[in-house]
Amino acid sequence: MRKSKPRPIKSIGDLDAHADKACRPFRAHWEITYRCNLNCGHCYVNHSACPVEAPFDEVTDALQRAGVLFIVVSGGEPLMRKDWRELIQSIRSHRMSYRILTNGTLVTPEDAKFLQETGASAVDISIYAPESARAPGGGLLHDHITGERGSLGKALRAIDTLRSLGMKVMVKSPLFALNFRYAGELKALAEKLGCGFVSDTTFVRPAQGIREGFKEVSEQELEELYTKIVRIDFKALAEEGSGNLCGDITCAAGRSTLCVRPDGSVTPCVALPIAVAKARGNEIAEAWTAHPALKELRTLTIDKLAECKACPDAKGCVRCPGMALEEGGSIYGATPSTCVRTRFFAKLRKRAKKGR
Q1: Per-residue model confidence as pLDDT tens digits over 138-167
Q2: What would the 3-class secondary structure string for the chain be?
Q3: Each residue of 202-224: pLDDT tens digit?
């Protein structure tokens, strides 16, 4: 029997899928600092905990040795690290690609030019509310969320500067009780600015605890969001098997992705604070094949998730083991916040099948 030819790799998504199956560390999320000039109420980072930041050349060397090809640079606010430009140059000199996540408020025209010249595949900038949205006590809602007056204007100017250089910019908008009603306007704003747009009602819980207004969107609010504010494609929704519990791979953490903390500690992902190595020498490469926590994650299928396996809506669930650990204390348990969303979308899926 003639063997079928392997499907050609044409995109980063294809590389991700290939790395997932092969268990190769393709993508790294590098939190280069915990420092930040803003104080966002929903942020999971503890900005008061500022560990000694690992030498960037030590980290880039270790990532290259492990086989990493793509790095997501974030913080805190990455531009708060004084040597961030040298760090980016080290990534590129080690023949790795990158994109950067920033709040945009510190991006100067010179910074934008540097990002363009060093080949950033994209710049992700957080926008939480349009200019028309007002905070409960007055002022711009975006500025209220970031805790910094004028932060929206600075972020928008950064987007204009980056787009004028022809750079790909992604507007990222986490949604919670305080801002979810502006999702439609945020999407329209991104389109007007010539940017991509991504919003999500799922986020790692804040290090400082959940503040008033920053609670996750409730099931009733999800109903309002997806049936009145952002219209869902009900035809696509009617299809089964849209979650990550359908196949053998339930999460990319520890399979194709890893996270590097500011001090060089390596964890499976941002949401899983389980140290498996230090980013130096061959430690990542050696841990990747030998560390028991990574081996355990790779065998995490629905058959090992008793609560999830018994759930009638499991096929539509997008489950995160990190959130399961945070909310329930075990990577094998159910995640209450995810269960709310899964039940809601299952209900919408039933409506879609009925042609409503």
Answers
A1: 999 999 999 999 999 999 999 999 999 999
A2: CCCCCCCCCCCHHHHHHHHHHHCCCCEEEEECCCCCCCCCCCCCCCCCCCCCCCCHHHHHHHHHHHCCCEEEEECCCHHHCCCHHHHHHHHHHCCCEEEEEECCCCCCHHHHHHHHHCCCCCEEEECCCCCCCECCCCCEHHHHHHCCCCHHHHHHHHHHHHHHCCCCEEEEEECCCCCHHHHHHHHHHHHHCCCEEEEECCCCCCCCCCCCCCCCCCHHHHHHHHHHHCCCCHHHHCCCCCCCCCCCCCCCECCCEEEECCCCEEECECCECCCCEECCCCHHHHHHHHCHHHHHHHCCCHHHCHHHHCCCCHHHCCCCHHHHHHHHCCCCCCCHHHHHHHHHHHHHHHHHHCCC
A3: 877 666 666 767 888 888 998 89
